[in-house]
Amino acid sequence: MTCNLTYSQTFPIVGEINSLFNCECLLCLFFCTVCLDGTLPGYHLHRGYGFGANSWLIQLEGGGWCNSVRSCIYRKTTRRGSSKYMEKVIPFTGILSNKAEENPDFFNWNRIKLRYCDGASFTGDSQDEASKLYYRGQRIWSAAMEHFMSLGMKSANQDVSGGRTLRSLYGGVVSTQQLQKDLPSSCTNHLDPTSCFFPQNLIANIQTPMFLLNAAYDAWQVQASLAPPTADPHGDWDDCKKNHAECNATQINFFQDFRNQMLNAVKGFSTSKRNGLFLNSCFAHCQTERQDTWFADDSPVVDQKTIAQSVGDWYFDRMSVKAIDCPYPCDSSCHNLVFK
């Protein structure tokens, strides 16, 4: 199925958002909920039905960050910073699918994909007038939740919101968008703001039950964090980053150390009975969005269960889910990403 982009009703609809925030021109955008370039944010919605009519699932679109004025200016010329460039119709697959055979537990819920256009993971509340950049991620989040409540989410009986080169990147995001004031004081009272943008320093203070899904060898992190060009000037990792089958023993050991560090980081999180996790030993990324990795005949499994089954078992309290895969190369069910 496909879903249309909505950006012209209350939260995202042009006329009503202008009246809602008393915003009629770019000079008023300081008060408004907007993307990096000042355009209105948007979302895709497919209504639930039957026993799922009062249940809601929100997928927050991913897409990295901008960590400098220059990178944010570039970003506002893409769908990651402007609704002008967003696809008007997108397929709903994986956890957003409306087919029971593809999405057994959530197929008939109200399913929303909230588009990402602020460059800082829905945080930030400032602007750069000189560069005409609007860092309004926090306002997008708040306005979106208020809008979805008005659409019926306030009556929901089920509700799911639903991923040292990185330090330099995150530091740029925090400073560019002035996120210091928006990060939780429970973290910033003992760590610097950049450290508090890292998820492992935030999850311990989250009270809402959470399900953590991640690939132990996340393909994006392999590319951007573990062996970026700045750390590999001679390109010794180029073949390995594109295809894990080309990695030598030393590189594989490096990945295993990365996996062990991640497992240590989530130890406290995993001890909570309310939390769940699914960590498979795959070179993958965004596994809930792709139908082949979410729920299909050959989807990745841990403990003989797919990601969709594991999320459903945890959410509906059918059983505790603490699925941690054995190290690479033991898992033959992975859909590993290979880049050309």
Automatic annotation (TrEMBL):
It comes from the Eukaryota. It is found in: Secreted, Cell wall. The keyword Acyltransferase does not apply. Its EC number is 3.1.1.-. InterPro entries: PAE/NOTUM. One of its GO terms (biological process) is cell wall organization. Keywords: Cell wall, Cell wall biogenesis/degradation, Hydrolase, Secreted. Signal peptide: none annotated. Its main location: secreted. It is an enzyme of class 3 (hydrolase). GO terms for molecular function: pectin acetylesterase activity. Pfam families: PAE (PF03283). One of its GO terms (cellular component) is plant-type cell wall. Belongs to the pectinacetylesterase family. Hydrolyzes acetyl esters in homogalacturonan regions of pectin. In type I primary cell wall, galacturonic acid residues of pectin can be acetylated at the O-2 and O-3 positions. Decreasing the degree of acetylation of pectin gels in vitro alters their physical properties. PANTHER family: NOTUM-RELATED, PECTIN ACETYLESTERASE 12. This is Pectin acetylesterase. It comes from Linum tenue.
